[in-house]
Write the structure tokens for this entry.
Amino acid sequence: MRVQGIDVDTVSAWLVDNIDGARAPFSFDLIAGGRSNLTYRVTDADGTRFVLRRPPLGHVLATAHDMAREFRIIAAVGSTTVPVPRALGLCTDESVNGANFYVMGFVDGVVLDSADKAVALPAELRPAAAHHLIDVLADLHAVDVDDVGLGDLARRDGYIERQLKRWSTQWENSKTRDLPEIDEVVRRLSVHLPRQQGVVIAHGDFRFGNCLTDVSSGRIAAVLDWELCTLGDPLADLGYLGVYWSDGPSNALRANDPTPAGGFPPYRDLVERYAVNTGRDVSAVDYYVAFSCWRLAVISEGVYARYLHGAMGQQEGIDLSTMKMGTEGLVQRALEAARSLT
């Protein structure tokens, strides 16, 4: 028996042997919404739920989708006060499922990745949820990377320079068409490089859409999707959050941003709260918003290319033309922001 991306028989045997308390038979359900690594809800014979993560199907770029690395990160962060799912087991034997995968605990909560999803969060709890989101980010950036065993995860300096090089290469490897604006953004960002303020665990994709929110309390229950995590500049995560933050319905920016539903504090308030919590200078945050729009455009192109070539499996409701236009929109927003830098 086989579920797309899962060899049910061999994976089930591995789960029984390696995950404490797991009992066969298991059901595997692809969780909708994932556009990079594939994520499955696994339910065992007792109704206990787990989550399994594996790389996309088919060809992926070298060094991308490293399951062992992602597992190591959530296990390390799980030793801190930052809420993450519990790391349960890692399989590096590709004969089991054709690729490495890992298993983590299931956490109840709602992924607030659209204005429609925000309806689940009562309006009176939206400020508290936003404040807790930024507080969790500050807590993540307060973690001593050496204390949790991540000091060798990546280089500690030159984060933006490294990212500009990495994602420029990624663009060349995954682009489906030429967009000259990409190169102009890189040139402008390179001219205005800010000074890096220390070294932190940089999540790389921090937003409501990559968290589980307890909608009964307005608290972040778990931070998800650590595949872009590295060591780096803390303001990169803060700027990235600005890409996914609208100050009201008239200023909606991203379809997978819940804040156009209203009731959330403005982005500048979150920036100030972060500054108070961390003591960091946030005056250059606009640079990081521009950088994040550019980087996200490159990532979006890679996702679009994988869907275009069938590497993400058969998922309903995927509009490739909208995805393609989304990359172009991000490039234009990055260019506009980069042109305003002085």
Observations:
- The mean pLDDT is 91.
- Residues 32 and 98 are 21 Å apart (CA to CA).
- Residues 285-308 form the longest helix (24 residues).
- The chain is about 40% helix and 15% strand.
